[in-house]
User: Fold these one by one.
Assistant:
Number 1:
Amino acid sequence: MTATYPEDWQKVIEFHGHVCPGLATGYRLAKAALVALGYKDPEEGDLVTIAESDRCTIDPFQIVLGCTIGKGKLYIHSTGKQAFTVGCRQSGKAVRVIQLPYNYSAESNALTKRVMSGRVSDEEYRRYKTAREARIHEILTLPDPELLKVEPVSVVLPEKEPIHDSPCCEFCGEQVMEPWTRRREGKIACIGCAVAVVR
Ligand SMILES: [Zn+2]
Ligand SMILES: [Zn+2]
């Protein structure tokens, strides 16, 4: 099934650990953002993603756009929407991509609930798998306007994270980045030690 899909879709699956409709949606949203910003290679633009969801849809942004948590290029401001703002730190240009409304049928939702509870027959599970695969295929192949919306937005993008000094906590001896240090009895304390009650 994956043979006809682009190579980076495979990378996204490997990173996420399973294939699911949310992952496919995130993949399409991330691609659409990249195109709308006019980039082919995400490294060109020093992109930053502000995610309104922290579920399956978020992971493709880390792979397709290189907006990983560790690089300080992914910020989560949950609103419960499958929406993501992607901006370029160099040009200041930004777009917000969002999935268009889509509802599974009541029957399909009921079947999914039964599968989640583990109480399904083999036949029902096969039906669930087939429907799910069909939906994933649909998400991966629908034209953009039937699946998602892209809107230009003006936002203030988060600043690059500075490098911090890491002094040692004078109570436990562990190193801690400066903004997280506290004061206790006039000494440097980590958060854990700052609130520790002296016995
Ligand atoms: Zn998933
Ligand atoms: Zn400490």
Number 2:
Amino acid sequence: MSKNIEIEQLGAAVLRMTAVPVENVKSPKLGEVIEEMLDILSDSKGVGLAAPQIGHSIQVLAVASKPTSRYPNAPLMEPIVMINPVFQPLTQEQERDWEGCLSIPGIRALIPRYRKIIVDYTDMTGTLVTLELTGFVARVFQHEYDHLQGMVYLDRVENNRDIISETEFFKLLALQKSLLHA
Ligand SMILES: [Zn+2]
């Protein structure tokens, strides 16, 4: 059972810091941080998490896409922990879609992200991994990667009118669903 770990909320200084690279992937301390992150992801309806969100300004993120009430259309995948990740867009093509953040509860916003990216990271065994990501999973990665640069998704909003309350977001989803089944 996970301890009661608090998720850092917008305004916390750690969310605005540039995270430092991990030097020793085998350190027990790092193992603890990763375990906490995975616990939170399995307990919450989040689909990704970055270490600064639990107060550690280190370059570690987890992508754990799964369909939840927060993201009903998310693909199901095993969580991937990425240490010192970097990425390149594979095309300049971007698409806009809704994002939310466990550190910024209650709201959603339309955010442009690269549709197809290539990611390099170190895994928990110290192996360098290269992975191509597209669509929703590429979006989650770019959202979490921003956290490692001291950014949050609201920094990428193009127009304040693209920000809506979560209540309205769920209404929108229900509407889309009823249209699909009409
Ligand atoms: Zn976030």
